Amino acid sequence: MGQETLRILETLRGLVPDRGEPAGGIPYPQTDFGYGLRQVSMLVKAQAGLEAAAIDLGGWDTHFAQGAASGQMARLLTDLAQGLAAFHADLRDHMHRMTVVVMSEFGRRVQENASLGTDHGHGSLMMLMGGNVVGGKVHGRWPGLEDEQLFGPGDLAVTVDYRDVLGEICLRRLNNPALQVIFPGHEIKLRGYVVA
Q1: Nearest partner of 88 among 98, 78, 79, judged by Cα
Q2: Domain spans, the chain
Q3: Which whole-number Å values give the CA distances from 54 to 101, 108, 133, in the listed order?
Q4: Secondary element (H or E) of residue 13
Q5: CB neighbourhood size of 195 (10 A)
Q6: Out of 37, 50, 93, 141, which residue is the most buried by the measure of CB atoms under 10 Å away?
């Protein structure tokens, strides 16, 4: 165990984050999110033993001046899209071994507030990318935006519990069947988002 730790530390010491262009020819955004994705990519390519990584892209709490085609929401979506595109292109040869999950801990209200933003909401979305993901389509059921279809005082209704998605990844991609320990009190529904 000690020898393996020393080997990994030596590998990490030799990594230089800004050296060379990423594979695939798509540059990472020059943002904290882009730099984080690039560092994860370097660890994957170096085969340094990375099993899980988490990167935060903050700023989604858009209570005011959210914007639409321009503004803070458009900037965030551009950073997310460009970062994921570069990451996928850079790690194309490794994607079969990876599962990328994009999610938020809260949604946004359907209606704009008085400050030209949106307040915290109920429903949101998750995106998956990588090996064994059943992709190329939207899973789940669209709940609708009519008043009688919204949850509570104007929120998008939840149609799939995020724990079902994460639980399926734990079981089928991480080979961890201890779902009741990981998600106590929730019975995971396997919906076919990923295959073993």
Answers
A1: 98
A2: 1-48+62-97
A3: 9, 22, 19
A4: helix 2-13
A5: 11
A6: 37
The model's confidence at residue 25, banded by pLDDT at 50, 70 and 90, is confident
pTM of the entire predicted model = 0.87
Between CA 52 and CA 82 the distance in angstroms is: 21
So what's the pLDDT on residue 112?
A: 87
Nearest to 17 by CA among 98, 80, 75, 90: 90
Dihedral, 53, 50, 129, 157 alpha carbons, nearest 10: -30
Q: What are the strands, taking DSSP E only, across 37-146?
A: 99-103, 107-108, 120-121, 126-130
Is residue 107 within 8 Å of residue 126, measured between CB atoms? no
From the centroid of its chain, how far is CA 133? 13
